[in-house]
Amino acid sequence: MEHSDERLMLEFSQGRPEAFGELFRRYRTPICGFFRRRVTDPARAEELAQDTFLAVVRGAARYQPKALFRTYLYAIGLNILRKERRKATIRGFILGGQTEAANPAARDTSEAGLLLRESLGKLDAMDREVLMLREYEQLRYAEIADVLGIPVNTVRSRLFRARLALRDLLQAKAPQRAAQIEART
Amino acid sequence: MNVSTHTVSVEELMAWLDGEAGDGQSDAIAAHAESCGECRQTAAALRSVSQQMAAWDAGSPTPEFDNRFERKAGDRVGRVVGKARMPRLLPRTRAGRWAAGLVSAGLVVAFLLRTPNRQMKTVSELRPDDRWISTDRNGPADRFSSARGRDSVDGGLASAGIDVVNGLPRSRAVGTFGKLQAPETAPAPAAPVAAEEPLIARTATLAIVVKQFDSVRASLDAILARHRGYWANLTVNTAEGSARSLNADLRIPAQELAVALADLKGLGQVQTETQSGEEVTKEHADLRARLRNSRETEERLRAILLQRSGKIGEVLAVEREIARVRGEIEQMEAEQKSLEQRVQFASIQLTLSEEFKAHLGSALPAIPVRLRNALVGGYRGAVESLVGIGLFAAGYGPSLLLWALILFFPVRAAWRRWKRSVAAA
């Protein structure tokens, strides 16, 4: 029988490293995806994912199962991401030029999904985060509210707004993209 | 007029699609979505967005991911159990941390602003209309209106065997208030100041809290007599409802300074004490050289006047020159005397404050009078505030305007750059 995440985390906090191994196996791909979709440099995204697991290890002694483990995990990931963006913003402000931790859509030039990434990059930052947490991390509304520290109703309204905005952006950009591809070929 | 026929909102519809609708609502929303064409379109659009988003595959971690994490974590994973939980020093919430920070900052400011001598502060904050007793024998008679102050202080002097004239020992009751007056008993500059020795003008500050204020002035006079010192200035404040205080500028022969300070400290509890010295050797030597030159010039001019004869105009010119040099000599002699006086007599700024004990019996002014005074004070404060604002605007307005014009464009450019950086992140 498979143990719940919370149970594994409690066991890890009580001294069973194998429990952490299981958690790591379950979440290594989702957490890497979380950062890869939000950070331009894939190597840096993996480093941040490792930092997230490292923070879980460091905080294990203080862990209390007040919320779902994945909420706890993504909240840590989001904090690490915010720090990274803050550093990049300050670096960009001082040195000038593009910030390193900007939206991956700004640098990813692969054809597949480029339209989607560009459109996502044009959404309001908070709306985009709500939408991505829902669509990619598959968090429930209440979990998103916990992770972002906003009310559930705000999550609901922002999510709806983000989806409609993204639909409009995709519809508006699709003909332009098709024309560009046609011109290239 | 459009009337909505939707029984569910679009957000409820979206929640139903996401599996977030409540148990009781799911069936109703499903039924409505089935029957309503507009909602069917909305649902299709939302599903389409989700499908398009799903196309973005972030991929799997690289094969080195696990190894790199193991290296990074080291043996931390195996050491989790038994780790002593450190007591949390900072509050968990951001608001708590802000509150803790503000409290800490407040404590630091309070510590830095802590006044070591409350009595000294009281003295400095006295208003001019408080009743004052001064030792000014030429001052107006109403300055001596406080019978308590004068009788008690003079009584103290009399009991110490010192002849009193208007609050001063007879030997020192000459001169005017606030003017340096050497006592008859003060030692004359017995030994001329040797040019080779360093000349130090010593000053000291002493603040003392005394229990028996009535007898303190007698003790002070006794100390001055013992050390052949005198006071240059003395002020006693006996404001109603606050501690009495005495401020004196004492002059003590420099060689007696240490002993005199020790005696003064015996009057009560010392709150603050500072001592300093200013070397005036070079200044004194320079003054002596200039004086010698001027005297020689004067002698030569006098010799010219006596030995040579000439036109009356030339004689008058020599006399005028002699008068000018004589004036310079007298001025320099006064400066030299003052300098030597500073070296021979150390200056002590003494503040004696009474340990304040409030009395219940003191009559308070009537409420209407207090109310009127408060209103007058408030009116004056308001007028002064307005005048202050006007003065500030007049005094600093042009400068501030100039700086605003200078800084406006750089600040705006920096702000826009910052906003662009934030938006890019």
Give a description of the structure:
- The complex is a heterodimer of chains A (about 180) and B (about 425).
- Chain A has about 180 residues and is an all-alpha fold.
- Chain A folds into two domains: about 1-100, Rna Polymerase Sigma Factor, Chain: A (Orthogonal Bundle); about 110-185, Orthogonal Bundle (Arc Repressor Mutant, subunit A).
- Chain A is about 70% helix and about 0% strand.
- Chain A has helices at about 5-15, 15-35, 40-60, 70-95, 115-120, 125-135, 140-150, 150-185.
- Chain A is globular, with a radius of gyration of 19 Å.
- The N and C termini of chain A lie far apart (about 55 Å).
- Chain B is an alpha+beta fold.
- Among the domains of chain B are: about 10-50, no CATH class; about 130-355, no CATH class.
- Chain B is built from twelve helices and eight strands.
- Chain B has helices at about 10-15, 25-35, 35-55, 65-75, 95-115, 120-125, 145-160, 215-225, 255-265, 280-305, 310-345, 365-425; strands at about 130-135, 165, 170, 200-210, 230-235, 245-255, 270-280, 345-355.
- In chain B, strands 1-5-6-8-4-7 form a six-stranded mixed β-sheet, sandwiched between helices. A two-stranded antiparallel sheet of chain B has the order 2-3.
- In chain B, strand 2 (about 165) and strand 3 form a beta hairpin.
- In chain B, helix 1 packs across helix 3 (about 35-55), helix 2 crosses helix 3 and helix 7 packs across helix 8 (about 215-225).
- The longest helix of chain B is centred in the C-terminal third of the chain and has 58 residues, at about 365-425.
- Chain B is elongated.
- The model of chain B is unreliable at about 80-85 and about 115-195 (pLDDT under 50).
